[in-house]
Amino acid sequence: MTVKTAASIRAKAASRRSRRAQRGASLLEAIAYLGIAAIVVIGAVALLNGAFTSAGTNELSEQVAAIQAGVKKLYMGQTQGYTGISNSVLASAGVFPSTVPISGASASNNWGGSVTVSSSSQGTFDIAYTNVPPAVCINAVTAGGSWTQIKIGANAVTTFPITPAIATTDCGTSAVAITWTSN
């Protein structure tokens, strides 16, 4: 027969309480887990934002270069220069890359703006993109290329390469229109 003393009863009760307390995660552990998860999510979002900006810049640069090359090829032997150039003529000739959505005579870009190709003088043509985000604008206009002028918003730049400082000032803090002029 075992004799139960007060001390043994208290020890057994304390042992049960200790086992109960160790079941599952404590509130502090749960808060720590959620904090770490939040930091990981914020980091992933920051990296994704940078990746999307970089992808947008690359796509814009490729589109503008493809349009420039296509226009030059299409009008190469023309004695009247770029007279009669329009989005509908270029769309019919297949000049626009497949990444530029075309609807009739309208072309659009990834940011909901328009893409317009026109000629203001016989020897030059313009490629205009509207509603371009500032981060994409800065990277696109500093990329270089064979342009006679790049107009960022209301500011025309004719000295190349465009420095990041000038691009940052001209591209501003909200969506902007960019017009590349080529001959």
Automatic annotation (TrEMBL):
TM helices/strands, residue ranges: 26-48
Classification via InterPro entries: Pilin-like, PilS_N
Annotated keywords: Membrane, Transmembrane, Transmembrane helix
Span of domain Type 4 secretion system PilS N-terminal: 57-183
UniProt entry tagged with the keyword Transmembrane: yes
Name of the protein described by the UniProt record: Pilus assembly protein
Organism of origin: Trinickia dabaoshanensis
